């Protein structure tokens, strides 16, 4: 079945009780158990208590597993809660390889929380296969990929890294938040698990916080790692509410059409910025100038809605540009219909390695001519002002 059809039908069923076409939201925290069935020794029904399982959450888990081409999904209250749960499946002394350019929250969870429990955390340049091969050790249990990366838009060869990880009996997990399953198929390329911040493109409307992990295991019920993750989900309890799951299920239906708009607009803006004299560098995998453009063409049919660019000057000029914009809101996050721009170094804090002159853009679904005109006037105003000084 095609992606567009799955996005609308996966996980959704007619409500046979009422005939409702739109699935209901199951808010009940508890579910009836037939005492006579219990007396007869019958197994527990699918739903007993909503922390362990809920029909609305189940519907979204089924939809996401199908869209990623996986066998099962587990939902969490945020992308970060999903990341924490994945890393909690590791044990004291295990070695984790993270990319150098990784969402700073992922690094903070690994280094700031789990290193205290004995996790060995190491960052490598995932774009350099030799460096990754050299960093793998017998204790390496997990190799983390994030591609395109946040905020430098570096690209990682998923198939090559997954193969290296497997050669060392390590699991390969890919954060597919920025690309979405429409633009990148990590499980088909060999990754074992995919992680998402569903807060972003999957929900797509900047009004839900959520996270998901999807596995490629042929039989997740008998996969010990997946069962550990399920145990952390059900007993740790970092799960999303039924309403949030319902909203995400609603948002998913338009994912392929929204993504095409994001990609087209981002490509247009990337070209515009690339030729602007006040812009030093544009990071977008769809540009010929991107160092991994060939890999992007191989791994992604289109290049996504995220880009970053470095303006001439430093922190002052970058923040001036952000301040002059009318249509782009200076705010964090990504993946909604509205365009956002963010000075990443200032939110990442004093240990940030992000250049001070870099602005990250979540390109929205406004008309590209309006977005371009806004960027043009903001750059013009900034450089008129600074060039006068
Ligand atoms: C690539 C990536 N992964 C994970 C996360 C964390 O997701 P959440 O904010 O839903 O916890 C983010 C958030 O920005 C992200 O950009």
What percent of residues are in strands?
A: 5-15%
What class, by secondary structure content? alpha/beta
Helix fraction?
A: 25-40%
Biggest beta-sheet profile: 7 strands, mixed
CATH fold-level name of the largest domain? Aspartate Aminotransferase, domain 2
Specify the CATH homologous superfamily of the largest domain. Answer: Type I PLP-dependent aspartate aminotransferase-like (Major domain)
What Rg, in angstroms, do the CA atoms define?
22 Å
Number of strands: 12
Structure description:
With 389 residues, the chain is an alpha/beta fold. It folds into two domains: 3-252, Type I PLP-dependent aspartate aminotransferase-like (Major domain) (Aspartate Aminotransferase, domain 2, 3-Layer(aba) Sandwich), CATH 3.40.640.10; 256-388, Aspartate Aminotransferase, domain 1 (Alpha-Beta Complex). Helices cover 40% and strands 15% of the residues. The protein has 15 helices and twelve strands. It has helices at 3-9, 35-39, 55-68, 79-88, 104-114, 129-135, 158-167, 180-183, 224-236, 242-252, 255-274, 293-299, 315-324, 344-348, 368-388; strands spanning 72-76, 95-99, 120-124, 140-146, 171-175, 193-197, 211-215, 279-283, 306-311, 329-330, 340-342, 358-362. The protein has a seven-stranded mixed β-sheet, sandwiched between helices. A five-stranded mixed β-sheet has the order 8-9-12-11-10. β2 (95-99), α5 and β3 form a beta-alpha-beta unit. α11 (255-274) runs parallel beside α15 (368-388). The longest helix is centred in the C-terminal third of the chain and has 21 residues, at 368-388. The radius of gyration is 22 Å and the shape is globular. Bound molecules: pyridoxal-5'-phosphate. The site of pyridoxal-5'-phosphate (PLP) has 14 residues, from α4.
